[in-house]
Design a protein that fits this description.
This protein is mainly alpha-helical. Helices cover 73% and strands 0% of the residues. The protein is built from six helices and no strands. Helix 1 crosses helix 5 and helix 2 packs across helix 3.
């Protein structure tokens, strides 16, 4: 069982960093929760008008573990099941967003709102 936890832990972290890179983060080996925590702090200080970090941190605090982004910002390690659960959630979200893009739902919404 220890080998399975190690495999899930390593690959979950790499998936997390990959999704953060696809989001546009330029820092190497940075999980999305750390980028969200930094974005949340910048939003609170008034340095940015985009509250995406607040939304992601609230979601992670509700679904993964309480104050997950705060722990990442302070460099504290999270519980291993929480990290694996976060990775599985990110995989699910990436799959759903990919399916919505494939079916044309998201582009239709963007065109309908007039963002493009």
């Amino acid at each position: 069982m220890g080998a399975l936890w190690g495999y899930l832990d390593r690959n979950g972290f790499q998936l997390d960093c990959l999704l953060n890179t696809l989001r546009g983060c330029r820092k190497e080996n940075t999980p999305i929760s750390l980028s969200a925590a930094e974005a949340e702090q910048a939003y609170i200080r008034g340095q940015t008008a985009n509250p995406w970090g607040c939304w992601v941190c609230r979601w992670l605090s509700w679904t993964v573990e309480r104050h997950h982004c705060f722990f990442q910002l302070r460099g504290k390690s999270t519980r291993r099941p929480a990290a694996i659960w976060a990775g599985l959630q990110l995989l699910f979200v990436a799959f759903v967003l990919g399916a919505l893009m494939y079916w044309g739902v998201i582009p239709a919404l963007v065109r309908g709102v007039g963002w493009s």
